[in-house]
């Protein structure tokens, strides 16, 4: 396989918080892989922030990952927060599937240095 | 020479004038002594007063009659001592006239009051002539006088009577021209005041207790007005009891009248009253009103003046009562009209809130300055609210919504709703104080300033008990009385009956609408080249629901049939007939000759209603998505409108026959046109274009104009906007259906076949993205297409090839002017529905939400998902 469809970068944001930045596309082909990476991260933190600002394509497979991540870790006490702009590829489908009803979605910070 | 007896009054009065006594002619007086003696002797015999002056204008002789009349001696009258007999008021004018006659040596004639021997003043008419000697020398005047008192009295009486007649005429005119009771009072007071030179005149209505008088208007040219409520006994019970007994009170001088005590004199004087007359209007055994005339100082009232006041009082009372009756008739007439209009307006209202608002607004300002309709049991308690002053509407609302009177209060809305009528005729400061429970309420009440208030029960229908509240804030309006309460109670009862009936009809309306909607198709046939949209909107009028329909049906050779119709009549039966026609259409389409005319003919028998009275208009269109060939047949239905891409429109009037079921029709005709790519076809029922009092052509013109403007919009937008714009401004009086489609053959296409594995998806997306980038299409909509295709492919990969060798998936995107169609076809077999994962379900939801049209058809060879996406957002989305 060539370059992976999506890259998931995990950063320590301090205070037992991890930040997972997803860049690229999520579909049926890489959903399980992305899910595994996010799951691993979630097990090592009190809070997992999933940043979808760099997602170029995402369908119901991506929604499924986020939903199951939130469901699974709600019991274990891990807080999952999603970062996605309202008018973005990820933001649109999250709104369409009303995942915001169960998972907190926050706007990305405005571009700095302007 | 005719001499008259001056003492015989009858003689003087006989002809209404006095025959002048001719003086002794100069020729008979020759100036000689013997002549003079002869004259004097003759004159002494006359029953006429005769007097003679010398050349120096000094009286030198009077006759016996003169002396007897005045009780004087002849000598005592020499010189100018006769002057003492003249009334001082008349003397200057009399003397001046006499002096002038003497100076000019001419005849003299004048009238003067003189004191008779018995001391009485009498009117005397005198005639004099210059005496001339034979040589023409002036010797002085000689003359006679007669007592004309009786004639004079008659003249004065006539003049006074004429003045009174003129006054009566003016009064009658004034009273007739005044329309309102207060205006009548004002005019009468003014005229009487001017006639008598009075300082103040007013007409007061006496309250039933007899204690107070209400002055609504007064004449007061120089002193203060006394408009208001006055306690009679403040001005002396002794005199007031006189008028209460029905007799006129006359006070010539309040400072000396023995019936008045000092404090009563002071109270009277404080109103600048020095003398007065009070004339009671004694009706139904009591004084009901009083006409009062004031002078600022003492005044000796004459019998004539008192009579005039009494007459004016009686006439004024009659005019006030007449005006009151007229006003009562006017008010009753206006109220009857109000109720009639209100009841018919209420029937037009769509729901309870609108009805309540309609009721409140109808009452203001005709019979109330503010009104509310309230339902104490409901969350939204205040249903209708109106105030004559728009600035105070929110004050009223704040009071009624946020600070209602506690339920246990006798004047609470809950009590009114429970059946208690409430009348606070006068909202006194003590009444207000009772409800000013906190500063906010006090402030709101202060701003609203109700003067009179009432509440009556109102049955809002459907078991909701409400109340109608109304109030007066304008100080010029009369307070509410028991008569007003009766009017409001009666009106509320009538309104209650209408609301209850409306509620029942509303229920029937809702049932009809539900039935109608249940009978209409829940999905429409469509093709990527011919996407059909349809709308149904129920009539707002309560009973005009049912019978309009639209439908699509499959026609041989991939053609699509679209039908719109209208069963004439609006009730549940019409809806049932409509359902029967729809079912028949679907059944017949498969079995008859593939022609719209044949279908119409076959439908004939299904159009008749249960009782055989219904008939239906309908138009059937069959369109070939591949070629744009459109065939149609109309049975009495308004023409289908076709709008070409350049905006020009055509009405399809080529195959028109009478309605279905109306009369026997043999073969029905059909006609055909070829649609230019991009043509918009609009089918509708007459409710869309018909307005009351307007020709059908006007509605069609309007439809064409709107359709032409919308011709490039997404087809969903076209359907929505047609209904919205053509019903804007007036609630639909009739059911409306619209079915529309655009003939949009493929402009561009891309086809990809992928193996059904997930790793193919990214490459497919990349290809499709490249193709979409060439279209004039918003990026977000392109994203929607990719997402929809992604979901369809994911479903196919996950479900179509379970347990079998990987097959392929065909993906085709076609561009059709206003939309893009995505067609995703697999060639596998889906696992049974029960095993679908919930995530596959989410994918389907996403597709249905994103696509304008979505269909999934599964056949033996596989499953096809068809979706359309607009290339641009509709007008509504574009203008948030």
Number of strands of chain A: 5
Q: Strands of the biggest beta sheet of chain A: in what spatial order?
A: 1-2-3-4-5
Biggest β-sheet of chain A, characterized? Answer: 5 strands, mixed
Structural class of chain A: alpha/beta
Strand content of chain A: 25-35%
Helix amount of chain A, in percent? 25-40%
Low-confidence stretches of chain A: none
Distance between the termini of chain B: 116 Å
The major pleated sheet of chain B works out as: 6 strands, antiparallel
Shape, principal axes of CA atoms of chain B: elongated
Chain oligomer state: heterodimer
Q: Could you tell me how far the N terminus lies from the C terminus of chain A, measured between alpha carbons in angstroms?
A: 39 Å
Would you list the SSEs of chain A in sequence order as H and E?
EEHEHEHE
From the helix content, strand content and strand pairing of chain B, which structural class follows? alpha+beta
Gyration radius of chain B, in Å = 52 Å
Strand neighbour order, sheet with most strands of chain B: 8-7-6-11-10-9
Radius of gyration of chain A: 13 Å
Low-confidence spans of chain B: 1-31, 833-840
Which features does this protein show?
heterodimer, A: about 110 residues, alpha/beta, 3 helices, globular, B: about 900 residues, 6-stranded antiparallel beta sheet
Give me a quick take on this structure.
The complex is a heterodimer of chains A (114) and B (880). With 114 residues, chain A is an alpha/beta fold.
List the helices and strands and how they pair.
The complex is a heterodimer of chains A (114) and B (880).
Chain A: E1 6-14, E2 17-26, H1 31-43, E3 47-58, H2 60-76, E4 79-83, H3 89-96, E5 104-106
Parallel strand pairs in A: 2-3, 3-4, 4-5
Antiparallel strand pairs in A: 1-2
Helix pairs in contact in A: 1-2
Chain B: H1 9-14, H2 33-45, E1 49-53, E2 59-62, H3 64-70, H4 91-103, E3 108-115, E4 121-132, E5 138-147, H5 149-177, H6 181-196, E6 200-206, E7 212-219, E8 228-231, H7 237-244, E9 249-251, H8 262-270, E10 275-283, E11 286-295, H9 303-348, H10 352-363, E12 370-374, E13 382-387, H11 393-402, H12 413-417, E14 422-424, H13 429-435, H14 439-448, E15 452-459, E16 465-472, H15 482-519, E17 530-537, E18 548-555, E19 559-567, H16 572-589, H17 596-603, E20 616-623, E21 629-635, E22 640-643, E23 649-652, E24 656-657, E25 671-674, E26 680-684, H18 696-709, H19 715-727, E27 736-743, E28 748-755, H20 761-772, H21 779-800, E29 808-816, E30 819-826, H22 838-850, E31 853-859, E32 862-870, H23 875-878
Parallel strand pairs in B: 21-24
Antiparallel strand pairs in B: 1-2, 1-5, 3-4, 4-5, 6-7, 6-11, 7-8, 9-10, 10-11, 12-13, 12-16, 14-15, 15-16, 17-27, 18-19, 19-20, 20-21, 21-25, 22-23, 22-26, 26-27, 28-29, 29-30, 30-32, 31-32
Helix pairs in contact in B: 5-6, 5-9, 6-9, 9-10, 9-15, 11-14, 15-16, 18-19, 20-21, 21-22
């Amino acid at each position: 396989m060539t370059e992976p469809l999506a890259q998931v970068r995990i950063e320590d944001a301090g205070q037992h918080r991890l930040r997972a930045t997803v860049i690229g596309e999520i579909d049926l082909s890489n959903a399980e892989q992305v899910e595994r990476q996010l799951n691993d991260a979630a097990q090592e933190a009190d809070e997992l922030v999933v940043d979808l600002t760099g997602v170029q394509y995402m369908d119901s497979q991506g929604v499924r990952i986020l939903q199951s991540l939130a469901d699974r870790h709600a019991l274990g006490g891990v807080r999952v927060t999603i970062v996605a702009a309202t008018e973005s590829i990820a933001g649109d489908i999250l709104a369409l599937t009303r995942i915001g009803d169960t998972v907190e979605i926050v706007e990305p910070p405005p571009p700095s240095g302007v | 020479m005719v001499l008259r007896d001056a003492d015989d009054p009858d003689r003087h009065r006989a002809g209404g004038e006095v025959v002048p006594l001719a003086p002794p002619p100069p020729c008979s007086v020759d100036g000689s002594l013997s002549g003079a003696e002869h004259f004097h002797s003759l004159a002494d015999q006359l029953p006429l007063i005769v007097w003679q002056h010398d050349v120096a204008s000094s009286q030198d002789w009077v006759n016996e009659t003169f002396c007897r009349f005045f009780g004087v001696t002849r000598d005592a009258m020499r010189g100018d001592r006769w002057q003492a007999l003249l009334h001082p008021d008349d003397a200057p004018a009399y003397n001046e006239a006499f002096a002038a006659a003497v100076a000019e040596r001419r005849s003299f004639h004048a009238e003067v009051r003189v004191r008779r021997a018995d001391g009485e003043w009498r009117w005397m008419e005198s005639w004099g002539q210059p005496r001339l000697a034979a040589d023409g020398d002036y010797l002085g005047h000689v003359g006679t006088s007669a007592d004309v008192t009786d004639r004079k009295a008659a003249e004065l009486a006539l003049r006074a009577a004429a003045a009174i007649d003129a006054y009566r005429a003016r009064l009658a005119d004034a009273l007739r021209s005044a329309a309102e009771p207060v205006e009548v009072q004002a005019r009468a007071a003014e005229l009487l005041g001017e006639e008598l030179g009075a300082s103040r005149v007013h007409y007061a209505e006496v309250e039933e207790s007899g204690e107070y008088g209400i002055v609504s208007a007064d004449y007061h040219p120089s002193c203060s007005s006394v408009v208001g409520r006055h306690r009679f006994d403040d001005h002396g019970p002794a005199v007031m009891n006189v008028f209460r007994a029905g007799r006129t009170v006359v006070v010539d001088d309040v400072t000396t009248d023995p019936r008045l005590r000092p404090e009563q004199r002071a109270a009277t004087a404080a109103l600048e009253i020095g003398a007065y007359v009070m004339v009671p209007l004694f009706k139904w055994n009591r004084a009901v009103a009083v006409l009062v005339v004031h002078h600022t100082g003492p005044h000796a009232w004459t019998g004539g003046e008192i009579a005039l006041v009494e007459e004016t009082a009686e006439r004024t009372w009659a005019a006030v009562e007449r005006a009151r009756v007229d006003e009562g008739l006017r008010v009753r007439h206006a109220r009857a009209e109000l109720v009639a209009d209100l009841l018919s307006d209420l029937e037009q209202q769509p729901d309870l809130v609108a009805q309540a608002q309609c009721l409140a607004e109808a009452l203001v300002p005709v019979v109330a300055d503010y009104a509310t309709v309230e339902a104490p049991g409901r969350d939204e308690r205040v249903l209708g609210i109106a105030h004559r002053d728009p600035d105070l509407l929110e004050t009223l609302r704040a009071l009624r919504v946020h600070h209602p009177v506690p339920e246990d209060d006798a004047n609470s809305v809950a009590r009114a709703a429970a059946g208690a009528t409430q009348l606070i005729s006068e909202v006194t400061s003590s009444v207000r104080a009772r409800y000013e429970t906190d500063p906010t309420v006090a402030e709101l009440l202060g701003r609203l300033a109700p003067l009179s208030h009432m509440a009556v029960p109102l049955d809002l229908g459907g078991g909701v008990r409400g109340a109608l509240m109304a109030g007066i804030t304008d100080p010029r309006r009369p307070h509410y009385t028991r008569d007003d309460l009766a009017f409001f109670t009666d009106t509320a009862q009538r309104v209650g009956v209408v609301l209850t009936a409306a509620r029942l009809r509303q229920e029937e309306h809702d049932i009809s609408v539900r039935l109608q909607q249940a009978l209409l198709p829940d999905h429409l046939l469509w093709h990527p080249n011919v996407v059909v949209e349809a709308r149904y909107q129920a009539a707002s009028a309560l009973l005009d629901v049912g019978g309009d329909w639209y439908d699509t049906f499959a026609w041989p050779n991939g053609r699509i049939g679209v039908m719109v119709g209208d069963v004439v009549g609006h009730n549940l039966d019409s809806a049932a007939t409509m359902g029967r026609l729809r079912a028949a259409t679907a059944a017949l389409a498969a079995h008859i000759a593939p022609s719209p005319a044949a279908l119409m003919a076959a439908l004939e028998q299904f159009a008749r209603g249960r009782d055989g009275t219904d008939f239906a208009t309908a138009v059937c269109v069959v369109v070939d998505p591949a070629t744009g060939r459109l065939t149609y047949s109309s049975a009495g239905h308004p023409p289908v409108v076709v709008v070409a891409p350049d905006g020009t429109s055509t009405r399809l009037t080529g195959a028109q026959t009478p309605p279905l079921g109306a009369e026997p029709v043999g073969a029905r005709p059909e006609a055909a046109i070829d649609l230019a790519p991009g043509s918009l076809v609009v089918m509708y029922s007459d409710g869309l274009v018909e307005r009351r009092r307007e020709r059908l052509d006007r509605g069609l013109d309007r439809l064409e104009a709107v359709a032409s403007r919308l011709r490039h919009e997404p087809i969903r937008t076209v359907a929505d906007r047609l209904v919205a714009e053509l019903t804007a401004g007036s609630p639909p009086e009739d059911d409306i259906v619209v079915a529309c489609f655009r003939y949009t053959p493929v402009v561009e296409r891309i086809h990809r076949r992928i193996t059904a594995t997930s790793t193919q998806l990214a490459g497919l997306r990349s290809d499709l993205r490249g193709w979409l980038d060439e279209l004039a299409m918003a990026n977000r909509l392109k994203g929607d297409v990719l997402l929809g295709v992604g979901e369809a492919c994911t479903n196919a990969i996950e479900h179509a090839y379970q347990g079998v060798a990987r097959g392929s998936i065909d993906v085709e995107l076609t561009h059709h002017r206003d939309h893009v169609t995505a067609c995703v076809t697999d060639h596998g077999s889906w696992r049974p529905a029960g095993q679908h994962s919930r995530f596959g379900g989410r994918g389907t939801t996403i597709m249905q939400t994103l696509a304008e049209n979505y269909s999934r058809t599964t056949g033996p060879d596989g499953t096809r998902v068809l979706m359309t996406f607009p290339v641009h957002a509709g007008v509504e989305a574009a203008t948030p």
